[in-house]
């Protein structure tokens, strides 16, 4: 059985999907981009601020499922320019303990929704 997870502390979906689905003890988040949920505006000042907003959105979705980054077992990072990898990784690293960080892939793609620079999704387990 699946449970829909949603919070107003993260951006509302921009299509026919939910912020996350909890199936049993496993949470599957939709990809988050840097939309500030308070304003509905994109945070695109620089790649570090953009990545931080993405991670804060994911933090809010995890919290709505009563989880934290400690519960995350897998992340998928999609970026529009691999030259931004270092800056994205630096921000991402502040949300995890390196010893217990989740599995991950990072993939460069041609475009992302709203032509942002980074999108991240996660799988977490209670």
From TrEMBL:
GO MF entry, a single one: deaminase activity
Alphabetized InterPro entries for the sequence: RidA, RutC-like_sf, YjgF/YER057c/UK114
Pfam families given in the database record: Ribonuc_L-PSP
One GO CC term, this protein: cytosol
Ranges in coiled-coil conformation: none
NCBIfam families on file: Rid family detoxifying hydrolase
Family label: Belongs to the RutC family.
Name of the protein this chain belongs to: Reactive intermediate/imine deaminase
Organism: Polaribacter gangjinensis
């Amino acid at each position: 059985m699946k449970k829909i997870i949603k919070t107003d502390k993260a951006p509302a979906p921009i299509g026919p999907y939910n912020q996350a689905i909890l199936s049993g003890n496993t949470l599957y988040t939709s990809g988050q981009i840097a939309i500030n949920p308070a304003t509905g505006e994109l945070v695109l000042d620089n790649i570090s601020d953009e990545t931080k907003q993405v991670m804060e959105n994911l933090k809010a979705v995890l919290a709505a499922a009563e989880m934290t980054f400690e519960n995350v077992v897998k992340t998928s990072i999609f970026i529009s320019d691999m030259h931004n990898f270092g800056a994205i990784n630096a921000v991402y690293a502040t949300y995890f303990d390196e010893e217990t960080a989740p599995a991950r892939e990072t993939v460069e793609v041609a475009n992302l929704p709203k032509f942002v620079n980074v999108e991240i999704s996660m799988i977490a387990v209670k």
